[in-house]
From TrEMBL:
This is ABC transporter ATP-binding protein. Residues 335-564 form the ABC transporter domain. Its main location: membrane. The chain crosses the membrane at residues 20-43, 49-68, 129-150, 156-179, 245-265. SMART domains: AAA. GO terms for molecular function: ABC-type oligopeptide transporter activity; ATP binding; ATP hydrolysis activity. It comes from Domibacillus aminovorans. GO terms for cellular component: plasma membrane. Keywords: ATP-binding, Membrane, Nucleotide-binding, Transmembrane, Transmembrane helix. The keyword DNA repair does not apply. InterPro entries: AAA+_ATPase, ABC1_TM_dom, ABC1_TM_sf, ABC_CydC/D, ABC_transporter-like_ATP-bd, ABC_transporter-like_CS, P-loop_NTPase, Type_1_exporter. Pfam families: ABC_membrane, ABC_tran.
Length: 570
């Protein structure tokens, strides 16, 4: 329930609309009861042929109750829905603020389709929390207790019967269905996540599935997921309707009991017959306010599971960030790793084991090794995208967990193996590097990466689908150059670029970073002669380190890799 408490905390920011919703909900309930009570009394009174002015007064009162009921019900709907939309907005903003710092590593834990189902579907499910769970029981209790207090003036027995009806329809019957409803809702929510995941994978992998002629199998799997979700929704709907029907049946039985009890009291002379119709009409009307309680367990369980699934994504993460001014914006900083080990979530194999690394401020370092040796993971740990399982990471002498992620990213030029490009133009994709960039600066950056044939107005499709692999890498390098930070983390930045263009780009890049700290992850061993140090990794461990000449003279693993590369190129 702690996740629901988070929702309630966000909800209470709209105290005024909540108060108005309850106030007008109570007024709508009371005026509805008053309307039908007056109708029953008027019918009985009219049978006795009272003076005309009595009929006129009762008719006017009846109309007053009708108008008041309509206005109150409209106001209740207006304020409750306005509160709901604002609460959902607050919830989305709050969740987004917690999610953003986790974004780089969030896909380790969640598949993209399931994450989308939680962020969209579960947030939407919480719209029912205020409208169906929070304030209706408050309105119900107030209206019922007020009605019971009123009926005690005429008959304590009828009042006790209505109180018993309140307990049955408001609490006992919904509670009996709550356990079963919780299991069904949980299954439906999981099935929705599975369906969303399958749809996402089908869309992302459609081309490959088509090429390898495996589309039919994936479509059948998607169809099974859809059928399971539809079946779950049907079970959920049937259970909700049955719950509502049982609740309505109990309410109707209470009304029949009130009629029978009232008739008996009239025959015994303990109740004036004039009020019998009024009490029966009250019992029929007041239980209309108990109707929402039939679906209360469904909406409560739906809200509870939605909140749990939603906030489990950011569970255990501190909202507090380190100081954003602990890293200097004006100079390069050093980076150290001391005994760092790391394992990806759900894996048993160590990705990194006991990494020792010392990057001096302003130095140039290359990290080389075969695929899967952990080179990229080192960069991601230095960016605080992942948290090390053990060991210490220090940036400019400060522990990395004391620094805000935003502080690290703001002061780093990053080119990863996969870089995202937005639908728009070349200009729009370059301007995300830094505010206030001029066209001249962007055109110079394109020239430096040999993309001067591009115009700033040229279109970029979603995910850069109209760009080649090499063009994407050069665009990413151009963005890094435009950012102008003093620390460079480059992960295979030119793996898809031809050797001639690669050398030209590196000349420009190293000139721009001549006074900066630079770490280059690369499979290629050419052009490393000028590096201050070279780190050689294999199977998650550092096996050699030193300058190019030192490693070549040592004739170890790096020397062997270099000889193999020469033989392949020759």
């Amino acid at each position: 329930m702690k996740d629901v408490m988070v929702v309630i905390k966000l909800m209470m920011a709209e105290k005024r609309d909540i108060l108005y919703s309850i106030l007008f909900g109570v007024l709508a309930g009371l005026t509805s009861v008053g309307l039908f009570a007056m109708s029953g009394y008027m019918i009985s009174k009219s049978a006795l042929a009272p003076p005309l002015y009595i009929i006129t007064i009762m008719t006017a009162t009846l109309k007053m109750f009708g108008v008041a009921k309509s206005i109150s019900r409209y106001a209740e709907r207006y304020f409750s829905h306005r509160a709901t939309f604002t609460i959902l907005s607050n919830l989305r903003v709050s969740f987004y603020e917690k999610l953003v710092p986790l974004a780089p590593g969030i896909f380790q834990k969640y598949r993209s389709g399931d994450l989308l189902a939680r962020i969209v579907g579960d947030v939407e499910s919480l719209q029912n929390f205020f409208l169906r769970v929070f304030y209706p029981p408050i309105v119900l209790v107030i209206v019922f207790l007020s009605t019971i207090f009123f009926t005690t003036y005429y008959s304590i027995y009828v009042a006790l019967t209505l109180f018993a009806g309140l307990i049955l329809t408001g609490f006992i019957v919904p509670a009996l269905f709550a356990l079963r409803q919780g299991k069904i809702d949980s299954q439906v929510r999981e099935e929705r996540g599975a369906l969303s995941t399958d749809v996402t994978e089908l869309l992302y992998g459609f081309r490959d599935l088509k090429i390898y002629q495996k589309l039919d199998g994936k479509e059948k799997q998607l169809g099974k997921s859809a059928d399971l979700y539809v079946d779950g929704q049907e079970r959920e709907g049937i259970h909700a309707v049955f719950n509502q029907s049982v609740n309505a049946l109990v309410a109707l039985m209470i009304s029949w009991f009130v009629l029978a009890l009232g008739a008996y009291l009239v025959t015994e002379g303990e109740l004036a017959g004039l009020f019998l119709a009024m009490l029966v009409m009250i019992s029929l009307t007041v239980f209309e306010n108990a109707t929402p309680m039939a679906l209360f367990p469904a909406h409560l369980e739906e809200s509870r599971h939605a909140a749990a699934r939603l906030f489990s994504i950011v569970e255990g993460k501190s909202e507090e960030e380190g100081s954003s001014d602990q890293l200097s914006k004006e100079k390069a900083y050093s980076m150290e790793m001391d005994g760092v080990s790391y394992t990806f979530l759900g894996e048993k194999r160590l990705t990194l084991e006991n990494i020792q690394l010392n990057i001096v401020a302003g130095s140039k370092t290359a990290i080389v090794g075969p695929s899967g040796s952990g080179k990229s993971t080192v960069l991601q740990l230095l960016l605080n995208m992942y948290l090390a399982d053990q060991g210490d990471i220090r940036l400019d002498g400060s522990p990395i967990d004391s620094l805000a992620q935003e502080s690290i990213w703001e002061r780093t030029n990053v080119v990863l193996q996969e870089n995202h490009f937005f639908f728009g133009t070349i200009r729009e994709n370059l301007m995300i590097a830094k505010d206030g960039l001029t066209d001249q600066e962007m055109e110079t950056a394109l020239l430096n990466v040999r993309l001067d044939s591009f115009s700033l107005e040229d279109p970029v499709f979603e995910k850069g689908e109209n760009l080649s692999g090499g063009e994407k890498q050069r665009m990413a390098i151009a963005r890094a150059m435009l950012k102008g930070a003093h620390v460079w983390l480059l992960d295979e930045p030119t793996s898809s670029i031809d050797a001639v263009t690669e050398k030209q780009i590196y000349d420009q890049l190293f000139e721009a970073a001549k006074d900066d700290t630079l770490i280059l992850v690369s499979h290629r061993l050419t052009g490393l002669e000028t590096m201050d140090q070279i780190i050689v990794m294999e199977k998650g461990s550092v096996i050699e380190s030193g300058t190019f000449d030192e490693l070549m003279n040592k004739k170890g693993y790096f020397y062997e890799m270099k000889q193999i590369e020469k033989s392949v190129l020759l």
